């Protein structure tokens, strides 16, 4: 055996050791997270058990336990029963060994359930040594990033492949080994050396040794300080929580992650492999499933609730198809999120991006056709571009797809034409239907005519269960509460205000004129004596004192103007105490400027207020810097409110979100709130998972115009103004 063979074995051994070392470094980093997590999780479990009354043990044992004596002894929670143990329980008068055994068995079952379900929340405002240790441990893996994870996977696979030939080649590692080996061992050793040489040459040419070395360095590099770790956590909390869920094994319910799809579809999606070589971000389990669903089903609606990362899932699909050799992709979105889409694709993938918008859009389109990449354009601009040839575009992504639910609209027709010429289409919307299932069916028809027709002429009269089963081949929806176990709490408060005399007078004038929109904003018509404005000032002031950022939403630009003037003039609520006021962000603000306003708002280190028109800012822009949301008035569509709140209460939010909806008693607000509840129930039954199977949309639906007219007439009657025929609502 010559020197060359020995050197080959040595090269293989060095690469094998480097691969094992990296896997070990990664394993230790993961174990550090588990070690930091365990005491926090145990404490959370104990808090939960200490909050469960001992009477719950009756439910577990179907009422077979008598617990009166136990409660009288001072053991009032499941946690206290477990802590007491069998000896103390047996000392309670009237409690025998059989009861003790049953009681403890029931308590342990509850404990196991809590242990599996309880989630650890990291309080960014109250860092403690235990949470700091967890954040620091997670920081190592987050900072190392997906490239390190890929390197670990390659290292693990390589170590497994190299181990057998290295063992067989052991006689060739020394000068005397081959001399004392038998013929069979020598032959096996020579074959093993050849296998090692092929493997090592292949991996060295691919640059694996350097990748392993860099990954090991990244895994050994911790944050420079506790403060740096916390700052990074606040900036990238979604990535921290994603890793935490993966390492802890406390992932969301599998059925919820898969959108409660039928088994045959879910199984087909699960088995599809997702290429991540062109992607720069890790996916959560439900996000990977969403991307696979789009790839497996070809033309789909991704209807995930706001804040679950639909954009990331779309980028994962784009990256996978690019890795397979597809060269051209098109993203169509509202102008307000054009910049956001461009940023996300550039930062989350290795794909080239072209903005096909503005006066030079046709030149940009020609360049995109020639060079490829992801073209990002608006609904209006798409109408001016020729439809692609068959197979030319690898994927058409349509963001806020509910914007094309009207088949008679030109933008809808343009999208339908492109969808027809593309093999793969991904519609994205958190609100696939707002008032009528028929509108959702219009979207489905662009993707799969057979599925759309299967819904029938009526609005899914068989109910929501049948509806969801019928659209399962093209429709996937998950809700925040089902898949984001770490999302901070959402507290929604209806702030009912008694109108001032001045408010009442302005309201009566609007009712007399039959002006529905003026009725909705009458509470702000006379700012000096506005009850709603007074409450809004208080909310902003309190948020500022707590260092929190606030977003104020209204449907009306003039209301936002009044709010701005009021906050600017208030010595205790605006710039005088350091609270910066941004906006108003309205539909007339150019798309790029909208994103800049949001960025500036988020960049302020202390409290700040962002004023935003709900239909302009409730879509696409991420405002998780804010933890207080104010809705100046109820909206006609419940989805407008859902979208607005979800701008702040979304993946990446690290603080509880408080939503304040300002409402005036005795008038239009009360009537709208009741009708909104009906519309929300419809939405929950059909667009979200629901067991409601009897209701049909027509039973509760009213159009916006009819709703406005009905409210005007009812208010005129209530205030004794009948006989005055109102004009059509504005």
TrEMBL record:
Pfam families: Helicase_C, SNF2-rel_dom
Keyword ATP-binding: yes
Keywords, comma-separated and alphabetical: ATP-binding, Helicase, Hydrolase, Nucleotide-binding
Claim: Membrane is one of the keywords in the record: no
SMART domains in the record: DEXDc (SM00487), HELICc (SM00490)
UniProt domain Helicase ATP-binding: residue ranges: 291-450
Gene Ontology terms, MF aspect: helicase activity
Chain ranges of the Helicase C-terminal domain: 535-708
Residue ranges that the Swiss-Prot or TrEMBL entry lists as coiled coil: none
PANTHER family on file: SNF2/RAD54 HELICASE FAMILY
Protein name, per record: DEAD/DEAH box helicase
Taxonomic source organism: Streptomyces cathayae
């Amino acid at each position: 055996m010559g020197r060359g063979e020995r050197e080959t074995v040595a090269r293989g051994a060095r690469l094998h050791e480097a691969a094992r070392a990296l896997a070990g470094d990664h394993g230790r980093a993961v174990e550090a997270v588990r070690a930091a997590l365990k005491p926090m999780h145990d404490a959370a479990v104990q808090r939960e058990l200490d909050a469960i009354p001992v009477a719950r043990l009756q439910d577990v044992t179907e009422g077979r336990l008598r617990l009166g004596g136990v409660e009288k002894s001072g053991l009032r929670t499941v946690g206290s029963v477990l802590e007491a143990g069998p000896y103390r329980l047996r000392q309670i008068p009237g409690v025998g060994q059989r009861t003790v055994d049953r009681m403890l068995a029931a308590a342990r079952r509850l404990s196991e359930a809590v242990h599996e379900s309880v989630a650890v929340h990291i309080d960014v405002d109250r860092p403690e040594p235990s949470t700091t240790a967890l954040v620091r441990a997670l920081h190592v893996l987050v900072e190392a990033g997906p490239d390190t994870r890929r390197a670990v996977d390659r290292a693990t696979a390589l170590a497994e492949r190299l181990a057998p030939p290295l063992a067989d080649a052991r006689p060739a590692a020394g000068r005397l080994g081959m001399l004392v080996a038998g013929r069979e061992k020598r032959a096996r050793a020579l074959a093993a050396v050849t296998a090692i040489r092929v493997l090592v040459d292949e991996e060295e040419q691919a640059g694996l040794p350097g990748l392993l070395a860099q990954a090991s360095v990244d895994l050994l590099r911790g944050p420079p300080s506790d403060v740096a770790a916390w700052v990074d956590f606040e900036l990238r909390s979604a990535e921290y929580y994603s890793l935490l869920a993966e390492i802890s094994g406390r992932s969301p319910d599998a059925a919820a992650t898969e959108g409660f799809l039928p088994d045959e579809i879910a199984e087909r999606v699960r088995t599809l492999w997702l290429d991540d070589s062109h992607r720069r971000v890790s996916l959560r389990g439900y996000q990977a499933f969403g991307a696979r669903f789009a790839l497996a089903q070809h033309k789909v609606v991704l209807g995930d609730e706001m804040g679950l990362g639909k954009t990331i899932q779309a980028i994962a699909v784009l990256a996978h198809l690019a890795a397979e050799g597809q060269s051209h992709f098109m993203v169509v979105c509202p102008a307000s999120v054009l910049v956001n889409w461009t940023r996300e694709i550039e930062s989350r993938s290795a794909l080239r991006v072209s903005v096909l918008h503005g006066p030079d859009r046709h030149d940009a389109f020609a360049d995109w056709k020639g060079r490829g990449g992801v073209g990002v354009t608006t609904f209006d601009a798409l109408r001016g571009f020729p439809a692609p040839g068959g197979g030319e575009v690898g994927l058409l992504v349509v963001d806020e797809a509910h914007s094309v639910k009207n088949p008679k609209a030109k933008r809808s027709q343009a999208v339908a034409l492109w969808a027809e010429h593309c093999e793969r289409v991904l519609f994205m919307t958190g609100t696939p239907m707002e008032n009528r299932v028929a509108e959702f069916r219009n979207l489905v028809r662009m993707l799969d005519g057979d599925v759309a027709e299967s819904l029938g002429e009526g609005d899914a009269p068989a109910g929501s269960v049948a509806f969801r089963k019928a659209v399962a081949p093209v429709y996937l929806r998950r809700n925040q509460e089902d898949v984001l176990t770490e999302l901070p709490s959402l507290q929604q408060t209806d702030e009912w205000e008694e109108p001032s005399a001045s408010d009442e007078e302005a309201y009566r004038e609007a009712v007399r004129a039959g002006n529905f929109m003026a009725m909705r904003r009458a509470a702000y018509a006379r700012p000096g004596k506005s009850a709603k404005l007074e409450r809004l000032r208080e909310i902003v002031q309190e948020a500022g004192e707590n260092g929190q950022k606030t977003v104020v939403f209204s449907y009306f630009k003039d209301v936002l103007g009044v709010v701005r003037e009021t906050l600017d003039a208030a010595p205790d609520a605006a710039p005088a105490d350091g609270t910066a006021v941004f906006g108003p962000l309205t539909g007339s603000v150019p798309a790029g400027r909208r994103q800049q306003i949001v960025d500036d708002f988020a960049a302020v280190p202390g409290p700040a207020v962002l004023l935003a028109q709900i239909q302009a800012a409730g879509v696409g822009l991420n405002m998780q810097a804010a933890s207080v949301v104010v809705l100046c008035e109820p909206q006609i569509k419940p989805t407008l409110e859902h979208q607005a709140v979800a701008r702040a209460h979304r993946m990446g939010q690290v603080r509880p979100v408080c939503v304040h909806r300002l409402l005036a008693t005795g008038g239009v607000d009360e009537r709208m709130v009741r009708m909104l509840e009906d519309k929300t129930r419809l939405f929950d039954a059909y667009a979200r998972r629901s067991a409601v199977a009897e209701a049909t949309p027509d039973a509760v639906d009213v159009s916006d115009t009819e709703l406005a007219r009905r409210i005007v007439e009812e208010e005129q009657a209530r205030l004794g103004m009948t006989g005055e025929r109102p004009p059509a609502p504005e």
